[in-house]
Amino acid sequence: MHILLVEDDAAMRASLERALTRRGMQVSLCADGLHAAALWQSLQPDAVVLDLSLPGRDGLQVLESMRAQNAITPVLILTARGTVGDRVLGLNAGADDYLAKPFDLDELEARLRALVRRSPGNTSSPAAHETVFGTLRLDRSSGAIYHLGIPLEFTPRERALMQALLVRPGQALAKERLYELVFPGEIDVKYEAIEVVVYRLRKKLTGTGIDLVTLRGLGYLLKLAQPSQTP
Description:
Strand content: 15-25%
Distance between the termini: 47 Å
Mean pLDDT: 84
Structural class: alpha/beta
Helix content: 25-40%
């Protein structure tokens, strides 16, 4: 799922990008209202997360101009303007949903996925929301991971690491990138902690036919286990 995030606050923008990427979404960024409409048109995202107080051009003006051009992309307004009057203005301007800051990330994710599911432009097949690798299947919409149809139980950090590797099957991901995805913004967590998550995942993948491999100097990847040789 591709999200265009239009947010002028650099810290909020970076935090949301990490959080949504960790949850399996592709995130494109815009920091002002002047470039938002052009990016919206060129990227054709699945949904737009739009702040209202933007430099250059107000978020409501961006939204109204895009709706005037018949843009049907679902839009969730994410703003500190949380009064009833502000919500009414946003919805009347063409927003599909409205979430006031501060907010819960789980609620934001759920609302975005619901908007995309209901979108008239969502004509993709179910397979587009899945990644299959060997006996494992990742449901991109829910984040659930299945082995032969049976859901596997992971901690949030284990799941984040598995999702990052499953969306790039057979490709190595550097330890630095995995650390950012598994421990976003957690500056007090030691760098070596990613190795603990990898160790636990290797044990949980036993018997699935999938190996979590370390490539020195490159990072980690998932690969199909080699069948055992019988004498």
